[in-house]
Amino acid sequence: MRRSIFMVAMALVAASLGLVPAAPASAAPPPGETYLELFWNGDREDNLLCGTLACENDQFGSGYRFIRNEGLAFDHPAPGTVPLELFYNGNRGDNADCVTDTCISAQLSSVYDFIRNEAWVYPTQQPGTVPLRMWWNSDREDNALCVTTTCNNDQVSSGGYKFLHIEGWVFPAS
Predict the structure, then answer these.
(1) What does pTM read for this prediction?
(2) Considering only CA atoms, which of 58, 56, 82, 78 is closest in space to residue 67?
(3) What is the pLDDT of residues 12-37, one digit of tens each?
(4) How many structural domains are present in the chain?
């Protein structure tokens, strides 16, 4: 609860200073869970999912804006879950969230640095879960991880994004 109050307060302060548009306040996630929040940086043309306060703070300070809550994951290692790992490539200005060995290997071979674990997700479908879909845009050199229909449709309509695979499974945000 403290984390959610702090997140909303920080977003409101940043918005009031004109640093970023205000993120809509949302109800706190259930205890032990965290929202996977979609951020976008138009200058970098970079999508990113955050599950930690550290990630959110990094994005607000780097020109990213909050778009929406994409999904709900665990904020700790829960039985049957694996970490959602955040990687960053400074040359590309691209963040990538990974669950699968395929994704992690691709980021490491493309000189991405591991930043932190953002959340814990299921590697296989569980009752009530929805897929984390991985998209790639070779022109933008951008990875995009989507849960909602809106996010997935945005990747299709913006052109250039190719669906790669299902990266993991999370609960819907609402």
Answers:
(1) 0.81
(2) 56
(3) 334 333 444 434 445 667 778 999 99
(4) 1
